[in-house]
Amino acid sequence: MLLRDALPALRVLGQVQVTYIAAEGPDGIYLIDQHAAHERVVFERVLGKSTTGAPESQSLMEPATVKLDPRQNEMVKTHADIVLGLGFMVEPFGDYTFILRGVPALLSGNDPGQGLVDVLESMAEGGGFESWEERAAYSMACHGAIRAGMRLGQQQMSELTRQLEACKLPQTCPHGRPTMIHLTSARLEREFGRR
Q1: Which of 40, 113, 154, 183 lies at a 20 to 30 A Cα distance from 107?
Q2: pLDDT band at residue 157, thresholds of 50, 70 and 90?
Q3: Is the model's pLDDT at 109 over the cut of 90?
């Protein structure tokens, strides 16, 4: 018997409107929101890595300097262990300025300084999370997740589906939005007038 939040093994059929993954399960069809699903996967991965102290970090070939506002500066100083635990390699470099030598692997394709600022801003907003670790994990998930409108290949869709199946809470994103809609076999039969 499946736990309420557990997912069955799913077989990916394709992508719908460059936003949803269509998959078949033992009892019907699942439409998976690729962004919400990836947020859940990243959130749980970042939380897990932060507790083991093994962040996935990407060194920058050329260090970047970033100037922070007073609130962001205070956050880096106050929560340095969390910022480092996310994978940011940050060093003070004068008034409100920092040298960035590495970024979380999830953000490696983006502007490194803006990535740090975005994560700090999301952490400051809180997003309804109580612990700073959860705020940081959500911030990383929000900024590092696959976006709606991004075309995914079959391999990418299958891998994301497998990762979602392995999550502790696969049914919702970290904020509680559904990651999927399940159309049961019985509902499909009713919709097509077979019952």
Answers
A1: 154
A2: very high
A3: no
d(CA 131, CA 47): 11
Task: Confirm if 116 and 100 have CB atoms less than 8 A apart.
Answer: yes
pTM (2 d.p.): 0.81
Look at residue 105 and tell me whether its pLDDT is greater than 50: yes
Using alpha carbons, select from 14, 43, 22, 64 the residue that is nearest to residue 188: 22
How big is the chain, counted in residues?
195
CB contact at 8 A, 73 and 67: no
How far apart are alpha carbons 17 and 107 in whole angstroms?
25
Among 104, 112, 100, 116, CA closest to 63: 100
Q: Tell me the torsion sign for CA atoms 38, 43, 49, 55.
A: positive
What pLDDT, on a 0 to 100 scale, did the predictor assign at position 1?
32
Listing DSSP states for 100-144 in one string gives: EEEEEGGGTTS-HHHHHHHHHHHHHH-TT-SSHHHHHHHHHHHHH
CB atoms within 10 A of CB 119: 27
> E-strand spans in the chain?
11-16, 20-25, 28-33, 57-67, 89-92, 97-104, 180-183
Q: Residue 46: which pLDDT band, with cuts at 50, 70 and 90?
A: confident
